[in-house]
Amino acid sequence: MDFTKMQGAGNDFILIDNRDGRFPETLCPRIAKQLCRRRFSVGADGMMFVERPRENGDYRMVFYNSDGSPGEMCGNGARCVARYGYEHGLAGETQNIETTAGLVRGRRIDEERYRIRLNDVSVMKLGVKPETEAGAEDGVIFCDYVELGNPGIPHAVVEVPGREMLAPESLRKTAEAIRHSPAFPRGANVNFYFAGDDGTVEELTFERGVEDFTYACGTGTGSVAAVLTKRGRIGEGTVRFHMPGGFLDIEVCKDRQTDKITDLYLTGSAVIVAEGTAIF
Ligand SMILES: N[C@H](CCC[C@H](N)C(=O)O)C(=O)O
Prior knowledge:
Diaminopimelate Epimerase, Chain A, domain 1; DAP_epimerase_AS; isomerase; binds 2,6-diaminopimelic acid; DAP_epimerase_DapF; amino-acid biosynthesis; 17% helix; alpha+beta; globular; 280 residues
């Protein structure tokens, strides 16, 4: 099967054009699980099938995590698929991408940079206690919870007091406890962040469905930006988020009267790594 491998800030994906419906929905989770397996196959954090639109979008993206579980949306994936869509003539410089979480608008900035409008914040809970299994010593007292879109992709947001704390090995236990906390019935991606005095933010995300830290997470970055806005820590404009795979920019737009977020735009690189044929 022909595939394209792409990455955005080191969050990597396998794309398959399924506009002719060759791969039935029942088979897609298995294909994703097999092809995403690192060392044994192509390897990626997630997989996207490009499908014919069901409503009035240019096309539809169906996302699976590397363990074969479905994801409602993927910010970096949507940016990559926007480049794929543009370069394969599925849409122009601006495009409408159908996702499970709702319609996402994409825009080409230049050859390697793509921007999407993230789905609206549908749920925001500040100061949630992520109850963990009895006796679990996770050390986290409170976190924030955000969903973007409907059904929204679930994100827990956790501030750490120092940038040196953003180390996968020291955060793994905490991440796994929050990821599986009964407080989040659909599970959660867990985004740790440190907001520096220079206006930049550093972030490290543990992803549901990958069950590990990834190099970047677009909807996670948008969720952290939504929390920082709600908490009055950032205003309107663009904030740069640094992560293991590079950086992503989030532009926050607010309604002047209500002070509510109207739009969150995610911009970053969308790189084509390879095109090839995978054996399934
Ligand atoms: N990396 C993604 C999110 C993948 C979705 C996934 N981990 C899930 O919770 O289903 C992003 O850039 O937004």
